[in-house]
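Record 1 of the preview.
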Amino acid sequence: MSLRSALLALLRVGPMSGYDLQKQFSQSVGHVWHAADSQIYPELRKMANEGLVVAEEQSRGERGIRRIYHVTEAGDRAFLEWMNSPPDYQRTRDATHLRAASLESAEPDAARAFLRAHIDHWRHELECWDGELAHIEALDNPMLVNRL
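->
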C-alpha cells in the first residue's frame, strides 16, 4: 500500500479537506498504515501537481482558507490500476522480531517482560481487527456505508 493509493481510495468516496483525510485515514487504515500530517499534505500537493486530484479552495472564517480535494479521472484510473495489479510484497524490517531472534541473550526477567509486551501488543491488534469486523457487520461507519 502506498500513501497515495490510500488517499485516492478515500477521495473516491467523496471530496475531503486535508484534515478530513487525515482523520478518515486514521480511522480506516491507521491500524495497519501510519501517516502523519507531515506526510499527507505534501503527498496531496504532489498528487495535485500530477493531476490525480484537484484542490478547491473554500473560505473558512474571515481569513482562513481550506482546500477540498477531489479525485480526478486520472486519479481514479491510477487507483484502479494499482488495485488491479499483482501484489508487490515488500520486505519488512521489524526490530521486535530481530530482538526475538536473539532473546536468549537477554536476562530472564527482561526476556519475560519482552514476551509479555509482545503478547499484549498482538492482543491489542486482535482487538482492533475485531472492532473493524464489528463496524463492518453493523454498517455503522459512514465511510464504509458510502463505499458500499
